[in-house]
Amino acid sequence: METLLLKIGYAIVLIGTFIIRYPHEKRNRSNTIRVDKKHTLEKILLGLVFLGMMIIPLIYIFTSWLSFADYVLPNSLHILGLLLIIPTLWLFYRSHKDLGTNWSVSLEIKDGHQIVETGVYKYVRHPMYTAIWLWCFVQILLLNNYIAGLSGLLCFGLLYLLRVKKEESMMLQEFGQEYEDYMKRTRRIIPFVL
Questions:
Q1: Whole-model pTM?
Q2: Is residue 26 included in any domain, yes or no?
Q3: Burial 37-66 (b: 16+ CB within 10 A, else e)
C-alpha cells in the first residue's frame, strides 16, 4: 500500500486526538487539584509517551532520517490499521466526554471528583488506556518502521505498567469501598476479559 496514504492515516490519528483532547485540557485548567501524585517519574513517562507517539512519528512522516529501519507488512494489515483509526478515535473521544471534568492528563484528584460509571466506563475502568493501546497498534500497522512504528508501544507500555496500579490505588484511597465495588464490576482494559 502507498506509504503516503499510511502516513496520512497516522496523521489523522494525531490531529484527531489533539482535537478531541484540547477542549478538555482547556476546560480543566481552572479545576482545583486536591490530590497531586504527579512526581518526576510521572512527568518523565508522559514526556516519553509524547516522544514515542508524536515526535518520533512526525520525524518519520516528514523526513527520511529513519528510513534505514523500515519494514514491510502485507496490505491486509495496512487496511486493518486504517480501519482501527475509527474505533481508536471514537473511544478516545467517548472516554474524554464521559469523564467530563474528572479527566486529567496525570495522577490527580480535583475538587468535586467522582467515580464515573456510565458510558464506556460502565464496562471498562480505563477506556482511555484502551484507546491509546489501539492507537499504538495503529502506529505499528501504519508506520512501517522499527523505530517510528514501535516507539509508541514501548513508551506507552512503560507508562501503563508503572502508572495503572498507582492510579487505582489513588482512587481506592479517595473513594474506598465505592471504587472497590466498581473494580469488581469492570475490567481494566478489555470488557469481560482483562
A1: 0.94
A2: yes
A3: eeeeebeebbebbeebbbebbebbbeeeeb
